[in-house]
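Lab notes, practical 5.
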Amino acid sequence: MLEVTDLHIEIEDNIIPETVVYDFDLKIEPGEIVGIVGESGSGKSMSAHAIVGLLSRKDMKKKGNIEFNGEDLLLASRSRLREIQGDDISIIFQEPMTSLNPVKRIGWQIEEALRIHRNLSDEELKSAAIAMMKDVEIPDAESRYYMYPHQLSGGLRQRVMIAAALICDPKLLIADEPTTALDVTIQAQIIELLKRINRERGTAILFISHDLSVVRSLCSRVLVMNKGRIVESGSVDEVFEHPREEYTRNLIYAIPKFQKIANPVDCQNRKPILEVKNVSARYKKITGYFQPGRKQKDVVRSASFTMYEGEIVGLVGESGCGKTTLGKTILGMLDDTDGEIVHYSQMPQMIFQDPYGSLNPSKTIGWILEEPLRINGKYTPDERHERAKKMLGLVGLDESYLSRKPKALSGGQRQRVCIALALMLGPKLIIADEPVSALDVTVQDQVIKLLIKLNRELGIALLFISHDLKVVYELCSRIIVMKDGAIVEQGTDTDVYNHPKDPYTKQLLLSAGYTK
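Output from the prediction step:
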């Protein structure tokens, strides 16, 4: 059905043209599921976007052949490509919140491809959209048809993206990192949904991911990309069980497993560094948005726990359970709270989930790192510069990065800068909010080992917020489980993983594939 031969992609908008994909070959048979894996910047998404015709014709030079049902798409006119896009070939993007139109209702967006490719009445469009919403297991489809993207959870938004991609019953579905930022339970649901679509509709799927465990559970064949080239390909079993290339072996080795990296901390002889007592939190009411007299719902409800010096504690739960809100509340970033928070250290810091969104894009790394010291007012310019250089060294970056801006750094390098920024004032407690969820497995592995190193060498206590139970198992000595704003279980890693008491904890562990 699809045959890509010698695809070569060059970006021409730089002073020196840059080749990003070299001699890419791919065959997909009808009804087949093929995976492409590799680190960020390896050329996975660029190759897929070329197949579906989404690359610019002005500053991108493409050579080779992309034959879909015998037609070369690289030679097709723009009008012909528009006929194919969304009808014969559809794509699901990585981040549904930025891919969906925030000012259009869900139903309208699912119907969009039908409006372009089919001649249907408004009633027929609505009927088809609701039927598709039910098919991708969106509950209460009739009422959610009229909702906006911000009113849905991350998992439901991803189902909307899948419904919009499938509405015209395409022959090929390209799924570009569709599960990267999702919880393990939602991720498992999306994978099962894609399997069912493939089985019942016969839709071929090109699945792009840096999560090798997801690729293994879904795909029959896999291509491994590195620096724009396919370095290895074959059946999933061949590539995972007998990888030929060192790069593939490193990718597989870096997959988080249920094994310990950090040594457990004995808290019996340690002093508390943080006490959280019956804390509830809610977001401040916005005039005109909430109904007068209506009580705002608590996002965090009566949370209580204690952390000790040098301890790494995992805070786990699905999106929307209140993990991040609790972290912000601990650092005093929310006003509308109840309960008591006692800090036994000064200047606790936070590492945010999205490093690019956390760093000022217009400033250099040096300026960004020195900013907390400027605000503190106790350091000379030379002292600020030396401390910034020292903190970069601690996270494995040299002083040349001080003069760069965030856009010139990779995702892993930006996350290291965020960690260095959190270290600038010498905190003894850091709250790390999903710091590795959007990173490749190899970079994720590097950042986890860096956090362990800082914990051992500097004695920093970490509250590690995550939905990845494998990463939490590697890193944390105690676990706190949240659901719907409340802590439903907490204890040592051994107790929570091997003897879970709450049904929700058991469900999380089952979704993550944990067995004793």
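Observations recorded by the TA: DSSP finds 20 helices and 19 strands in the chain. Residues 286-291 have pLDDT under 50 and may be disordered.
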